[in-house]
Structure formats: C-alpha cells, structure tokens
Amino acid sequence: MTADTRFERHAQELGHDFSGEIKIGGNYTPVMRDGHQFYVSGQIPRVGGDVLFVGAEGGGSNKITGEKMNSITIRQVVLADLDVVADLFDGYRQFYGQPSDLVAARTFLKARFEHGESTIFLAESQGQAVGFTQLYPSFSSVSMARVFVLNDLYVAPTTRRQGVGEALLKAASDHARQLGAVRLSLTTAVDNTSAQTLYESGGWLRDQKFYAYHLALK
Q1: pLDDT of 42-87, one tens digit each?
Q2: Within this chain, do residues 98 and 166 fall inside the same structural domain, yes or no?
Q3: Strand residues in the chain grouped as ranges (E)
Q4: What is the pLDDT of residue 126?
Q5: DSSP code of 56?
Q6: Do both 48 and 124 map to the same domain?
Q7: Residue 154 resides in a domain
Q8: Backbone angles phi, psi at 133, to 5 degrees
Q9: Do 50 and 143 share a domain, yes or no?
C-alpha cells in the first residue's frame, strides 16, 4: 500500500473528508511527537485549522495515528519575550553558518528593543514559540515613503511546512500596511529554494531591475 493510499484511508477513518478540492499525496516530512515519529504531508499541511499527522507509531507497529495541532498564533514581541526570541534568533544564525552564542543574540535583540530599531513578530503553537520574523524600518527617497526590510524569518525545524512562515509573512505585511509603508523587501540565499517558493507563493516578486552591492567594512 502506498503512502498516499495509507494517508487517505486512515485520514478518512479519523473523520476527515478528502473529497473534492483537497489533493492527496507527496512530500512527507518526519515530525517527532512524544518520542514517536509521524509524517505530515507537505501537500496538505492543514485540514481546516488542523494539521494531520500519519505514520508508524513506536517500534514498527505500522499503526497509523492522527493528531490535531493547535492553530498558530502570531503576536508582536515585547521586552518580556526577549529570552524566548533570543533562543529562536540563535537558531536562525546557526542556520546561516554562525556559531551558537545565546548571550550575544540576547544582547543584540535587547539593543534593538531599547532603541526602537526593529519590530519582531513571534509565532506560537501549543504554547511553544515556533518562529519569528524581524522587520527593520527604512524609507524610500524616490517614493518619499516608509518601507520595511524583512531581515529575518525563521521557523523551528520541527514545525516547518505547517503554515508558520506564511502566518509570519502575513503579520509582517499587515503591520507594514497599517503604518502606511509602500513596500516590504527581503533577500534570501540563492540556493534556499524552499524559502523562494514560500515568498513567491505569497506574491513576492524577485527583483528584475536592480543588482544588490555590498561593501564589507570589517
């Protein structure tokens, strides 16, 4: 029996209707829950507001188990959240090849708070912090208007492909619009194709007119 067939049959047994518009299949990602490994479909990460996991539970028993995951909540970070965000920020920097330094991460973020130099949104699920995005304010001289640089976006590895990134991007764009900004900008690594797919699916367009240049000062 294929993974798709198993997913469809057991999902129906768990009370989920897959008739009509929902597509079954593809891209199963391992996720650990309570010491057991389950698989979430990248094709259909949500059924309504839930995430459905299927997979073998325990020592190869081949029992299919479904779980519902609480919906994602996004809120703007305050100073009291500093330690939680610093841990995610440290993981974000490690993703880009930097050594872990939680003290420096906390110091850096605290300085941004104290000087009003950034806005951070935190994603939470089941009472746990699972991702963040950080915006830096700027301006466009040509447009004579406010813009924001979406400098950081990070989702914890165990909660990727579950809509966290999309929710953070929406919170960022809503915030920028409310403040009258005309544009959000970001950069991502040329080999980070998963991030590129995420951005483009949300309406972000790759710049076709300008090159980016950097001058290293240290």
Answers
A1: 443 333 444 444 443 333 323 333 333 458 899 999 999 999 999 9
A2: yes
A3: 28-33, 36-41, 53-54, 73-76, 119-125, 128-140, 145-155, 183-185
A4: 86
A5: B
A6: no
A7: yes
A8: -135, 145
A9: no
Q: For residue 40, what are its two tokens?
A: 């979430």
Asked if residue 118 and residue 40 are part of one domain, the reply reads no
Q: Does residue 90 belong to any structural domain of this protein?
A: yes
- The Cβ of residue 136 has, within 10 Å, a number of other Cβ atoms equal to 15
Kindly state whether residues 176 and 97 are assigned to the same domain.
yes
| CB-count burial class (<10 Å; 0-12, 13-18, 19+) for 108 | middle
Tell me: the pLDDT tens digits for 120-169? 999 999 889 999 999 999 999 999 999 999 999 999 998 988 899 999 99
Q: Read off the DSSP letter of residue 100.
A: P
Domain at 166, CATH number: 3.40.630.30
In a domain, 24, yes or no: yes
Residue 110: in which H helix or E strand, if any?
A: helix 102-114
CB-based contact 129:122 (threshold 8 Å): yes
Lookup: tokens for 105: 């991460």
**Are both 78 and 50 inside the same structural domain?**
no
Residue with tokens 């305050």: 78
Phi, psi of 213 (to 5 degrees): -120, 150
Q: Which region among 23-37, 155-169, 183-197, 202-216 has the lowest average model confidence (pLDDT)? A: 23-37
What does the alpha-carbon distance between residue 204 and residue 207 come to, in Å, rounded to a whole number? 9
